[in-house]
Amino acid sequence: MESQILMTPNTSAPSAPQFDFNAWMQEQLQRTEQSLSLWVGVNAPADLGEAMRYAVLDGGKRLRPLLVLAAAQAVQGLPDAAMRAGCAVELIHAYSLVHDDMPCMDNDVLRRGKPTVHVQFGEARALLAGDALQALAFELLTPADDMVPPAIQAKLCRVLAQAAGAQGMAGGQAIDLASVGKALDEQQLRRMHSLKTGALLEASVAMGVACAAVTPPVQQALSRYATALGVAFQVVDDVLDVIADAATLGKTPGKDAANDKPTFVSLMGLDGARSYANVLLQQALQALDDSDLPDVRALSALAHMVVSRSH
Questions:
Q1: Which helix (H) or strand (E) holds 140?
Q2: Quick check: pTM over 0.85?
Q3: Does an H or E element contain 177, and which?
Q4: Are 256 and 241 in contact (CB under 8 A)?
Q5: pLDDT, tens only, 281-292
Q6: Are 287 and 222 in contact (CB under 8 A)?
Q7: Digit-coded pLDDT (tens) for 181-223
Q8: Which domain holds residue 146?
């Protein structure tokens, strides 16, 4: 996360200041880490909290919380609701990684540069830690006080539940498991990843937008941005699985090819996949322009970061 992107704002004012994306990102990451540390695994019994915190803290790009916070900022949404939403979507992401890494799924031993949760704590505790993280996500979205209006709470819960369930992440993982060794065309591959990976990224933007009242055209434009970004993320992920080593990637490289899983690289070739990622980046940026929002610099910089990342 060492990006140093400087962006000029989406305005014609000649004297407008530059946008220091790195400074913005570091501030948001610090706030997110503080919130996660405060909320995750506190008072959980029988060392369950330790496994939960191991799964969430001190690792990960935090792309999903950053997308929530950037989208909320773009639409001038409620900051407290946005932080809770960002942490909630990160907990869903973390729980999915815990379960995906287990022997019954991808059977991986390395995640974020350290042993996976089931290797560190055993399969039973890893399963419970994932379950607890999923439940905690929705607890964060429904605080007992009036910090987040009930209507926004309900909308956030619905968006996240849909993205995580059978019509989202879980459904995409099911397709992934059923597709091993099969030849998928681009449309089938896109559908699988739009559910498995894209749904949660799209939900991150939608949850940020849900922290404010916006017009349908703005909502539609940001939805198109999120869709393009979600596919681009997976395309780059497939490229990195081929070209990056374990130390850089933080997880076991080459697993897709070893397991005969269909990828954008296997479908398009390495150069074709890289070119496709740049096409998707331009689609995402065009959607931001179409939103006519006065300040989408953070969302724009995040799109650039997704496509140019090395891990």
A1: helix 123-140
A2: yes
A3: helix 169-178
A4: yes
A5: 999 999 999 999
A6: yes
A7: 888 888 888 899 899 999 999 999 999 999 999 999 999 999 9
A8: 18-308
